[in-house]
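Q: What would this complex look like in 3D?
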Amino acid sequence: MAAAGRGTAFGRGFWALAPLWLGVIPFGAAYAITARGAGLSLLETQALSVLVFAGSAQFSAVGLFAAGAAGLEIVLTTLLLNVRHLLYGLALGREVDLRRRERPVAAFFLTDEAFGVIAAAKERSFAFVLGVELSLFMMWNLATLAGFLAGAAIPDPTELGVDLVFPLAFLALLVPLVRTRAELAVALASGALAFGLARALPGGLPILLTGIGGSLLGAYLTRGTPPDRTIHADDAAREVA
Amino acid sequence: MSFWLTVAGMVTVTFGSRYAGLVRRTELPDFWVRFLHFVPIAVFASLVTPYLEGDLGERGIRIAAASLAALAAWRTRQLWIAIVVGMAVFWLLRIPW
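A: Here is my prediction, written as structure tokens for the whole assembly.
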């Protein structure tokens, strides 16, 4: 796959995403180190990257595993985080003419970054779409593997306070998303609500409830302004996997 | 087994979200498009505050480290720079000077 030439549609797609590898590698490695700290095995850590292939959902899932959340809470939080892919699918379905049997493949590997790159590109073939998508898939999984193995070099993660990487990573993902007053209000209210709820409720429930409550608040605060249905390549690429 | 059952559920809802958009031709109502825009913001924020404190009674320096990490994230928009800054500040403040 790495030998994919620039001359084919697949190769052009593959290399079109390559500039984003720089952001994917540390994110994937940080995910794997956190998963290791949460007590997941290499097989389990890698399985999430291969089968689920959604960075923020995988990251939150390992945090929830560590917190002893119930499986259902983890699945529902995953749904809440990934249901935005519906929008990408809708846009992609309009733009690219996919055959019936190509759709599940294109859907399985669809991510924020891939959508962003495809939206910004001129090519619209299935081979190009697949090249973009698999470029991220390959690097995400290599970064997961490398991160997990590197994690073995960290002697005592708890003593070193490596668990701080988890909230730091989400803070770093959150900050670039906050650009308007409504977004700032939702971020602050959600942070406060989750903090309060976490003292009263176990496991993943505070995150799930805050995710729904905060998003309802945002939708309410922005009522009257028409939603931006054209997803900008730049924005999608910034919302990591 | 519970782990793999959870993974199966995660795969189902993730693939379902990705696939449903591709095969549907309808548009979502405005309210829900705006709702979805705020989901990452609300969820990411809720994954920060409950985990900031830690279990070792280092609340003060962890919040200080996170504040500088947030500043770094805002200026550079690079995930890894924010994490490196945050951890470096945290370890520096931990040293009993």
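A: To summarize the key features: Residues 48-97 of chain B form one domain. The mean pLDDT of chain B is 89.
Q: Very helpful, thank you.
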